[in-house]
Amino acid sequence: MRSRMRMRDRIRLRELRRQEARLSKIVPPPEHPIEHELRRTRSIGDLERLAGLGSSRDDRAAFWLDFSSLPAREVLDAGCAELRRRIRSAAGAPTPAAG
Asked: CA–CA distance from 87 to each of 7, 27, 41 (Å)?
């Protein structure tokens, strides 16, 4: 009888440890709704609209002119990063850490 009690205690202890491990895992904070919208964008135009850039060619050209001194690929990367930053800022969402 005594060995059975010990076995039950060991099983219960193992269950408690597993439960504690599950509860102690770090839970990420909930995502801001704008992040879902950012993932749904399919084009640079979608980003420009969400960022509030005017739809005229002059408004768009004025924005992209700031990045014109960069190589072609970097223009797109830097411009899109700036558009995302503006969108997050307007929505009040935290800007993700660079890394």
From this structure: 58, 26, 12
